[in-house]
Design a protein that fits this description.
By secondary structure, the protein is mainly alpha-helical. The protein is built from 13 helices and no strands.
């Protein structure tokens, strides 16, 4: 199949090299890249907002997460601000659609931000493992949320969220004729995609839902 990699001009600097690599691994990747070439991953450059969005989106659909986020940001007067969130009553946060558990998580994240532990300079200076360990100090942030931040917040090129059900489902559909796979199989599958597994995950998500999600 002839390559025709017309990519998002705002894509990270490594995106074209990554797409070239993936398209050489298997023809399915070239097809996915060509079908979803109009948009690449982007960073908001705002660690607190990215992580708060990730917390909101945990274990619910993209549509539901968007609805909760819209109500939450309205409560915050249009700006994701940790000081404003901490000033809100629990009931006000709960009214946005957050579970009581996520209300607690949002407060823990906001306190972490207020203490100065979410500065972009600090986080960007850490390698993937150290950054994950740092973020997982916050109640409610586990490996998946940390990985979303590495991908969407810091634009790290080789993050591979094997526990993500969407990644597993897309690998199954695109490469294993729908046979179910789990984290172990996803981990093994990703070995040949190094060092561009963030890009691979992006196109796997697009294969399930072309709607772009930005954390």
């Amino acid at each position: 199949m002839e390559k025709n990699l017309i990519l998002d001009p705002q894509a990270p600097a490594y995106w074209r090299e990554a797409c070239e690599h993936l398209s050489d691994v298997h023809p399915v990747w070239l097809d996915l890249i060509q079908r979803h070439s109009q948009r690449a991953i982007r960073s908001r450059g705002a660690p607190y907002e990215t992580l708060l969005r990730s917390l909101v989106g945990q274990q619910i659909s993209v549509k539901a997460a968007d609805a909760v986020w819209t109500r939450l940001i309205a409560q915050l007067s249009g700006v994701a601000d940790s000081q404003k969130l901490l000033a809100l009553a629990d009931e006000a946060l709960r009214s946005t659609g957050l579970s009581w558990q996520k209300v607690a998580y949002a407060r823990a994240l906001s306190e972490f931000d207020q203490q100065g532990y979410l500065s972009l300079a600090l986080l960007d200076g850490l390698d993937d493992e150290a950054c994950t360990k740092h973020l997982c100090q916050v109640k409610g942030i586990g490996p998946w949320t940390a990985q979303m931040f590495l991908m969407f917040g810091l634009l790290r090129p080789d993050v591979w969220p094997v526990a993500d059900l969407g990644v597993q489902k897309a690998i199954s559909r695109q490469f294993f004729n729908g046979d179910p796979i789990g984290p172990k199989e996803a981990l093994q599958f990703g070995e040949k995609l190094r060092p561009w597994r963030t890009v691979a995950a992006w196109y796997l998500w697009r294969s399930l839902d072309p709607t772009v999600v930005d954390y």
